[in-house]
Each structure stands twice: as structure tokens, then as C-alpha cells.
From TrEMBL:
CDD domains in alphabetical order: GT4_GT28_WabH-like (cd03811)
SUPFAM superfamilies: UDP-Glycosyltransferase/glycogen phosphorylase
Domain Glycosyltransferase subfamily 4-like N-terminal: 11-179
Signal peptide: none
Glycosyl transferase family domain mapped to chain residues: 183-336
Protein name: Glycosyltransferase
Cited InterPro entries: Glyco_trans_1, Glyco_trans_4-like_N
């Protein structure tokens, strides 16, 4: 596994869950991190190595991918000399992919690039004009005729249609979950609000569209408190508090901040509400449903749309505040039943077998 560091994030969490599951099945797993950041406890039995870029001169950045690929090649060649060739290589996230794509020490038939987000709407890549054309060419160089895994069908469709990428091989494999562990953690003690509440889980970044969320909540007329669970920068937090005050809902918004275990909050919530412009897989939605909680979401959250089938579709809204407000009222009044949903396809061991079948 190669990844651009391990900060807090759904993609990084998926990498570690997958690695842990493969070790449990008896496989030798190594994670090569291309940055020295790691905010998680590493799974037992996983070999972990940080491969950082020692160059600091800004003028060298134009050749960064090539230079770092050469450095990575040296380490991989040395490792394979003593341990044998890797049977399967998975690169996660674009910053890793553009380096791995230049490696010459790896059998490219064994290398797969795992896409966790729509590159066309990524904040780093979705540019217009000259820089946008440069980014498009760069993306084509990385992924054209490569083996591609996407965590959702919409992500694969996006890269094929937007960038005219034709994969050598492709697969749709969702993120892995230790379902029993999640359902055990959701019963851990915590101190919830005294009354029922709505919940949003996610960092306060622009893509999450908390501005739309607060407006929809105000329009809904629902009086249940809205709990926002997630990291936030001071400036963004101040902006949202000011918006809540303008909307007259400041006394019903609870800025709870980051929580290492969100599952008890999910279990007790009346519903999880998402207002994003786009997303990869739909991790928060699936985790909420694993905790028995229905989901309200904008349809632009394509990963969540793929999860909400049958009666659960009643929670889907167009990506505007009035439509989302209507769904908040509907689900709070008449919540869909999530107890009959079969989540076994997302169990870690099931997902691991899908990865092993790539070899």
C-alpha cells in the first residue's frame, strides 16, 4: 500500500482497515507513506515505512514526481531483493498516484490506483483555464491505460468521462468496515443532549456546505437541536456561528467539535444530515446506518445515493436548502427503517477478498 500520509480522513482510515484485514488473512502487508504524518494507531503486523522527500529547494518542485519516484524505486528494489516481489500494489490518493505511476521497479500489471474522490471536483485539481488544462494532461499521464479501483461507480464514471481515461482494467470496491467493532463502539458511554437531536459528522470544510445545512435546518422548522461533530478552523467556526445567529437558530446548534468515537452520537441521533456538494464513498452515511440511524442527504453526495435504496431513498434531496429542509421534516416525522439493510458486502473480510481477486 502506498499513501500520501495518514492524516485523519476516510481514505486513510480505509487503507488501515484494509491492511489490518489482509494481515488477519495471513498476508504480508507493507504501507509506504510518502509523508511523515500519521494520526492513527497502526494495525499490528503491518510493516510501516515513511519515505519523505529530502529536497527543500522550490525550483526542484517541477521535477518532484520524477525525483520522488526514483527514490521510491531505490527503496522498493532493495526491499524486493530481500523479501521477493510484491504480489499486489495499491496506490491511494492522487499525490501518491502521480509518483507511483513513474516507478520502474514495479510490475505495472500488479499495480492498481485506488480513487477515493471525484478528481473533477477536487479542490486541488478542479481548475479552469491554462492550469486546468495542465492538470487534465497530468491526470491522463497518471491513469491512462492503468489498473483503476474506484470506491464508487460515480468516481470511475467521472474519471473516464471527464478526462477520457480508458483503464487497462477497472474494479468498483467499496471501503471496508469492521461492522462488529463499530456496533460495539456505538454502545460506549457518552453524554448526549437531553433531548433527541439531528447530527452532522464531518470537518467544517467548504465542500461539506455547512452554510446550506444551516439554511435548510432553519427552513425546516424542526426544533430538535442540530449537533455538528467534526474538526473546525477558528475562522470557519466563526462564520457558521454568525450565520446561525442571523438565521435565529444559534440556540439550537451544538458545535461539538472532533470526537474520536462518533458512533454513540450516531446511534442516538434522530437522523444524520449531509449537505455536501460531492463525496467519494459515503462513509458517514454507511456508519450511521450501521448504528441504526436513517440518513438525509443531498443527491450530489453520489456515494451516499448508491447506498440509499428502497425506502431509504426518501432521505435524498436536491442540492438546495428548500429541498433539503423538506426531507428533514419528512424523515423526522416518518423515519425509514434501516434495520433490514444487508451490510455484509462492506465487511472487512469481504472487501479484502475483492482486493485479493485482483492479483
Amino acid at each position: 500500500m502506498l499513501v500520501d500520509g495518514l492524516p485523519t480522513g476516510s481514505a486513510e482510515k480505509a487503507v488501515l482497515t484494509l491492511a489490518s484485514g489482509l494481515v488477519a488473512l495471513g498476508h504480508h502487508v507493507a504501507i509506504f507513506s510518502l509523508r511523515s504524518v500519521c494520526h492513527y494507531t497502526l494495525p499490528e503486523g503491518v510493516v510501516y515505512q515513511v519515505i519523505t522527500d529530502k529536497h527543500r529547494s522550490s525550483w526542484l518542485n517541477i521535477n518532484e514526481s520524477k525525483r520522488r519516484a526514483q527514490h521510491l524505486d531505490e527503496i522498493i528494489s532493495r526491499t524486493q531483493k530481500f523479501e521477493g516481489d510484491y504480489d499486489l500494489v495499491i496506490s491511494h490518493l492522487y499525490n501518491s498516484d502521480k509518483i507511483v505511476a513513474r516507478c520502474r521497479s514495479l510490475d505495472q500489471n500488479k499495480v492498481w490506483f485506488c480513487l477515493h474522490e471525484m478528481l473533477s471536483v477536487s479542490s486541488d485539481l478542479s481548475r479552469s483555464g491554462y492550469s486546468g488544462r495542465i492538470n487534465k494532461k497530468s491526470i491522463q499521464r497518471v491513469y491512462q491505460q492503468r489498473n483503476i479501483i474506484a470506491v464508487s461507480q460515480s468516481i470511475l464514471d467521472d474519471i473516464k468521462q471527464t478526462y477520457q481515461i480508458e483503464p487497462a482494467r477497472s474494479a468498483i470496491i467499496g471501503n471496508p468496515y469492521n461492522i462488529a467493532e463499530i456496533q460495539n463502539q456505538m454502545n460506549e458511554p457518552f453524554t448526549p443532549p437531553e433531548e433527541a437531536y439531528l447530527l452532522h459528522v464531518g470537518g467544517l470544510d467548504q465542500n461539506k456546505r455547512h452554510d446550506r445545512l444551516l439554511e435548510a435546518y432553519a427552513l425546516s422548522g424542526v426544533t430538535l437541536p442540530l449537533v455538528l461533530l467534526g474538526e473546525s478552523e477558528t475562522a470557519q467556526l466563526g462564520t457558521l456561528k454568525a450565520q446561525a445567529q442571523t438565521l435565529g437558530i444559534e440556540d439550537r446548534i451544538i458545535f461539538q467539535g472532533y470526537c474520536a468515537n462518533p458512533y454513540p452520537w450516531m446511534r442516538k441521533a434522530k437522523a444524520l444530515v449531509q449537505s455536501v456538494d460531492t463525496e467519494g464513498f459515503g462513509d458517514a452515511a454507511l456508519e450511521a446506518m450501521l448504528c441504526g440511524t436513517p440518513v438525509i442527504s443531498t443527491r450530489s453526495a453520489t456515494g451516499t445515493v448508491a447506498l440509499l435504496k428502497g425506502d431509504l431513498e426518501r432521505g435524498l434531496a436536491d442540492a438546495n436548502a428548500p429541498a433539503l429542509a423538506e426531507k428533514i421534516r419528512e424523515v423526522v416525522t416518518n423515519p425509514p427503517d434501516v434495520s433490514a439493510v444487508d451490510f455484509s458486502q462492506f465487511e472487512t473480510q469481504q472487501v479484502c477478498q475483492q482486493y485479493l481477486a485482483l492479483n
